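To: structure desk
From: M.T.
Subject: fold request, one chain
Message: Could you run this one when you get a chance? Sequence is below, nothing fancy, just the single chain.
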Amino acid sequence: MKKKIMAFCTIITFGSPTVLLQVEAEENNNQQVIDEQRSRIQMEIFKGSVELNQVKDEIEQINEQISRVEQAINDNNNIILETEKKISASQLEIQKLETEIAALNEKVRKRNEILKKRALTFQEKGGKVNYLDVLLGSSSFKDFVDRVGAVASFVEADQNLIKQHEDDKQDVKKKQEQLQNKLSELQNMKVELEGMQTQILEQKQQNEWLRAEAKKKEQVTLVEQAGLMQQDSALSTMDDLNGIDPNQILNESILISNETVQKLITEGLKYVGNSVYVFGGGRNEYDIANGRFDCSAFVSWAFAQVDIKIGTTTEVLKNTGIPISVEEMQPGDLVFFDTYKKDGHVGIYLGAGKYLGSQSSTGVAIADMTNGYWLEKFNGRVNRIIVQ
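Reply: Done. Structure tokens follow.
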């Protein structure tokens, strides 16, 4: 551009046709270079858009997988709770059986005492006469028959009680073993489910990490896109300088360079996922060190990182720089939204319909202006910051 201006001034001073032809040739060469550069940059922008779409698809797939994993976690938790209920019920059944066994043993003990006392009535006092002695000690055949019947009854009763006792013990033991097996099975199931839960949580953490990495990739691509768009815009501006009065060019304010915009956005991205929205925040060292910003303070801080001083309120910022149309938006421009009031929110345009700002719900984050809430709230005000 400087060469063109110098050549233009030379023509005015000397009026040489030869110089004019040289300027024309130089202009044609410059135009060819600009066209080639713009073509290359636009191709890079196209590739970046394709990559962005791929990253978005990847994020969407990861989100779907995370949803499936979260559902699996919920289902697993429900199964674990049900298993714990079954374990508690089984433990109560075991306790009940143990009580029944103790009661049965006590009954058998008492029965044995009764049998013992009843048998002693047919034995000599203080002696050790067995059932055979009782039978042989009969005084008559009738007495013998009576004693045989009595002994037989006692023996049968004693055997029945023992058999009943053994049967009861075996039955209770069998039930207790069944319950213990069931309890063991449930405990093993719980251990297995808890192990599965651990694996699912690890999978969820891995998916969260993949999503975070994809988000970083998206942010980097957006920054690269913003830089490419800025370069293309700068080349377009150079292309449009043909025929403009050099004095007019020299009197215009200087636009922010592409490198400055890239640095501005890169600095701002440092607070993505590492900040919180605080109304009135971002105006002292403590807030800045701890990522506590409201929207306008964040924008002001970001520009300060590239040595550009602007206001810290939306009222000041909406009157800062020069207003441009939505069609002319470039990365680094300020975009305004009607939230709790007109021009109540401000952010830094990134390109591709995205902007960077401190939102009340997320802190510093990249937001989409092309749909949903921010599309509805965008009021069309766009200001371009210039360096005087």
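Reply (cont.): The beta strands are 254-255, 276-277, 292-293, 322-324, 334-337, 345-351, 354-359, 363-368, 378-384, 386-387. Let me know if you need anything else for the meeting.
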